[in-house]
Write a structure and sequence with these properties.
Blueprint (H helix, E strand, L loop, with lengths): L8 H17 L5 E6 L4 E6 L6 H15 L5 H8 L17 E6 L2 E9 L3 H13 L6
Antiparallel strand pairs: 1-2, 1-4, 3-4
Helix pairs in contact: 1-4
Length: 136
């Protein structure tokens, strides 16, 4: 029997709250986007003073992370290694800060963060994931 796990609004709120806490702890004005396994937006949080351009970037990071079931850092590393063909891969964003949400081996969604350095975006996203019980 296949028991599909779904990302709930309650899950998204846990992730968003922990991500917000990490961003505030570091005084980083960011946008946090959380999508379900179909890449549909479940939660969007824009901290005060976050640039509005980060809204679309955060959403796209989350969508890319769930579409390909891997952190967006993977494509950033490919580009840094000179594999430019990944720039043309539809649906990717070669900027760190998008992480899939995995629970009990199932990909149930993703979180994307934008607004500061990409490694800091990823730090915030990871803090959100770390707060979700059962995540990987």
């Amino acid at each position: 029997m296949n028991n599909k796990i779904s990302l709930t609004l309650a899950d998204a709120k846990i992730i968003a709250a922990a991500a917000e806490a990490e961003a505030r702890r570091n005084n980083w004005p960011v946008v946090v986007a959380i999508v379900d396994d179909g890449a549909h937006l479940v939660s969007l949080l824009r901290l005060d003073n976050a640039q509005f351009g980060s809204i679309d970037v955060a959403i796209q990071k989350a969508r890319a992370a769930i579409a390909f079931r891997r952190p967006t850092k993977v494509w950033e590393e490919h580009i840094a290694d000179g594999r430019m063909r990944y720039l043309g891969l539809p649906g990717t964003l070669p900027i760190e800060g998008g992480l899939p949400i995995v629970v009990d081996g199932q990909f149930i969604g993703a979180v994307g963060v934008s607004g500061v350095r990409s490694s800091e975006d990823a730090q915030i996203a990871q803090a959100g994931l770390d707060a979700l019980p059962g995540k990987v």
